[in-house]
Amino acid sequence: MTVEASVPPPADSAAGTRAGHYGFGAVLDSERIKIVSVRSTVWTLLATAVVGIGLSAVVTSAQAARYSARTAAAQQAFDPTHSSLSGILFAQLAIGVLAVLVVTAEYSTGTIRATFAAVPRRPLVLTAKVILFSVITFIVGEAVSFAAFLIGQGILSGKTPTASLSDPSAVRAVIGGGLYLVALGLLALGIATIIRHTAASISVFVGSLFVLPIIAAVLPSSYSDDISRFLPQQIGTVMTTAHYHGTDTFGPWTGFIILCAYAAAALMTGAALLLRRDA
Amino acid sequence: MSGDSLLIGGGALAKGGHGLHGLLGGHHGLRILLLVLAVAAAAVLVVALTRRARAARHTPKGRSAVPAAPTSAAGMPGHALAGSLRPASARRDGGAIVARGLSKHYGKKVAVDDLSFEVQPGHVTGFLGPNGAGKSTTMRMIMGLDAPDRGSVTVYGRPYHSLGWPLREVGALLEARSVHPGRSAYAHLWMLARTNNIARSRVDEVLEIVGLTSVAHQRAGQFSLGMGQRLGIAGALLGDPGVLLFDEPVNGLDTDGIRWVRQLLRDLAADGRTVFVSSHLMSELAQTVDHVVVIGKGHLIADLPIAEFTSRNAHGYVRLRSPQLDRLRPALEEAGAILTAGPDGSLLVHDLPVEKIGELAWQKSVLLYELAPQSASLEEAFIESTEGNLEFHGDPPLEAHGVSQP
After folding, report:
1. CA of B344, closest CA in chain A: separation in Å?
2. How far is A119 from chain B (nearest CA, A)?
3. Residues B126-185: pLDDT tens digits?
4. Among candidate residues B256, B276, B311, the one where a domain is terminated
5. Distance of CA A199 to CAs A102, A202, A247, B171, B281, Å?
6. Do B238 and B361 fall within a single domain?
């Protein structure tokens, strides 16, 4: 029997307690180990990059090809920045899947019990996940957004007007592309915390992106416009557009704040349930 | 504009031919190169993130390196625990785990009903009961994973959630499969260790203790049931805790593995630790436990030292073979014995010590071919005590040394 000699038992060992307390930094680092030690992280981030950059290039090429055939009004409304960032609105699916898995993989595998046994203060775990996910998604999202923009402008060059990073509005839209992915991912993370099942969480997330707009579209237009401006997809469109001409939507930053509010509401609800429910 | 933006996807698909044509056209080689570069850049970023984690050389303060546990000659993992010795006497004043009036229901099903017990340090305490008796629920409530409807349970007098370093106070094997199948055993243990500032070297130690060092970097999904169980035990030992909970630890283990777990439990208790181990099979634990807490349908049935539990619940008998049984029978009955017929014409004598039977036979000059005391098996005691435990319903537990509140 080896007896550990290096660490003497703390003075309060008889009471069965040790001084100090586990801290947030350690929980954050533990979440980092978790997220980089499974393959789904790599795959979803890779999908984000491929879809975000690749689809942007495809859409941009298509628009470049038909630009000359469009009406003067349509040419006037053409936003080269948004065109080059259109893949972001699809990359959001991959980011959403990553966000959902960050939470639901713990439940489906039972890891959540080991996690909460190690860190009984559950909101600490959720906070760590939120911060880590935000940082990763921000870095990847901005990289994808800038790459898509630069490639897109290259494709458009000579065929349509182009945007450049010397235009503050274009920069705002490109940065907005990454921020949109972060906020939307956090919404997915909140949904997953509430629902706890992978398939159901992804369904609700995808539904809020693609089904709600359809429902809004079939409503009478007086309702439709009022509702549409609140939809994540619509907010994302404005956020990734440099010069938005519509009047029936929120501005890019207002939209971003509304999106963050959705995410915060979902996360708060999730946190409240986390405290109440059995693991 | 909103309609336009919603239709962009459709437009892209409809015009995909043009887009692809444009992309693949001779003038666009540079753009394709750019696209590939961007994708590659994103991939490199992801890989770099992964690498950084693998290469991280975190040595959080806490315990420092301890020589690896020796592996025994038989090839079984050694069970050196590398733990600070905790004097059992230090915590004698109260149980390390104290449950008081613990109750829990799921929907309409009552899982645990007014359960009170204490678990003492320095012993292996068996937590026994048929499947569905509420053992796992109780374990989860001890760990703060499930909240009791009523009552409370404390570890060292504190609710689990208020422990400063939970993994260093309580280690638990709750379910064999509580590991992400895509994560390596090493990463699983390291991410747990990290939360409680447990040194990285300790991960290697517990892997050595449970004998998983050679497969530490394999994905846990490839593990057999027994290996998964060993990984769970490694997780329980990680924080070198004073209290250990094992829910059905020998499930899925082979004979060697079972022997190893039994020895591990004994060693942990001999160290002065509190060991609480559940099983639905008494035979798994018969030679291992010092004390038993038996529950059935969420109720406490018994809370006794193992010897007392055996003697109270399973009665020994004596097997008797003789050509002159008829002459002996009345004398035995007169002495208070209960007689039943045994196999091969033998007689089974209950409630009479073997010495007394021998004495009576001598007095009656009866020839005996066999006079064989049969000791009660623990399994029988267990079955007897849990079978139809409704009989016990409403009766006070045999001996609850917890508080019994009216």
Report:
1. 51
2. 7
3. 999 888 889 999 999 999 999 999 999 999 999 999 999 999 999 999 875 789 999 999
4. B311
5. 13, 5, 37, 32, 37
6. no
The CATH code of the domain that includes B296 is: 3.40.50.300
Taking CA–CA distances from B48, the nearest residue in chain A reads A36
B298 within some domain: yes
Question: Is the Cα dihedral A70, A73, A74, A79 positive or negative?
Answer: positive
Mutate to test the interface with A, among B6, B27, B186, B198 (most CBs of A within 10 A): B6
Contact B238, B207 (CB under 8 A): no
Pick from B259, B278, B311: which residue ends a domain? B311
pLDDT tens-digit series, residues A187-235: 999 999 999 999 999 999 999 998 888 888 888 877 887 888 899 999 9
What six digits make up the tokens of B388?
A: 């139809």
Facing B1 at nearest CB: one of A60, A77, A150: A77
| Domain interval for residue B304 | 88-311
Burial class (CB in 10 A: 0-12, 13-18, 19+), B390: exposed
Q: Which residues of B touch A25 (CB under 8 A)?
A: none
Give me the residue spans of the domains in chain A: 24-276
Tell me the pLDDT tens digit for each residue of B27-68. 455 555 565 566 666 666 655 555 554 444 333 333 333 333
- Residue B57: inside a domain: no
